Amino acid sequence: MTAGAVSAVRVRPAEREVAAAEVLHVLQVARGEEYRLELADLAAALDEGELGPDEQATLEGVLEVALQTGRIRAVHGPQGEQAALKLYRRLPRGAELGESAAGVTAALQALVGSPLEAVSVQAVGPGAFTLSLSGAGADLTIRLDRQGARLASVGV
Predict the structure, then answer these.
(1) What is the largest CA-CA distance in the chain?
(2) How far apart are CA 115 and CA 28, in angstroms?
(3) Which of 63, 72, 79, 138 sits most deeply, having the most CB atoms within 10 A of its CB?
(4) Residue 112 carries which DSSP code?
(5) Domain boundaries, given as residue ranges, for the chain
(6) How much is the pTM?
């Protein structure tokens, strides 16, 4: 998905149920009138079943926190978590994460069937790691963090 090309996202019934419950939960504890208004607009858009760019941005934040903390799974079970993940993957940041993972997978295909000579993982900061792989005459370093999986360096 290219920057600025955000289209409306239709929300399926199972996704709507989980997303609406999480938005209402956040609305109960939210501070700040502007954020509360964003959440109210999001709740209305969820009722209609279609999210515009502003509502998508607000929902991304709600779902990211609820998924990362395990709240959705704890409250809505595995099916609710899967519904939330399916919806998240269709939102801009979720789609970007999927695209970055696909790009890394494509680069890793160069190593398929070749013996690995070295593998290492390094912690580079809170929630950020690099995975280094060497084999088939190539050295790949992959960064894994909240922004997704992406190639940090390629050596031949």
Answers:
(1) 58
(2) 54
(3) 72
(4) T
(5) 9-90, 107-155
(6) 0.82
